[in-house]
Amino acid sequence: MVYSYATDHLGFRAAHFDVRKGNLNVCRFHERFGAERVGETANDYLYQIDIVKILAARLRYKRYLPEIVTVKW
Fold this sequence. Notes:
Strand order of the largest sheet: 1-3-2
Shape: globular
Number of helices: 3
CATH architecture: 3-Layer(aba) Sandwich
Number of domains: 1
CATH superfamily: Gcn5-related N-acetyltransferase (GNAT)
Distance between the termini: 17 Å
CATH class: Alpha Beta
Order of helices and strands: HEHEEH
Strand content: 25-35%
Structural class: alpha+beta
Radius of gyration: 13 Å
């Protein structure tokens, strides 16, 4: 849902983020979604994913995702 909101509403074309090395479930989630590990620090793995991979993953996992993502303030 975060990728959907970021691309559809905020216009993001890529994501760059880090995940704590001990958080293996989150690492696997992002890697299944298409993110690539591009580096690391002492505590974190660094990832990036471009819009092409984001859109492909959203199609692949469509049955698990809502049609529209909205944020209420």
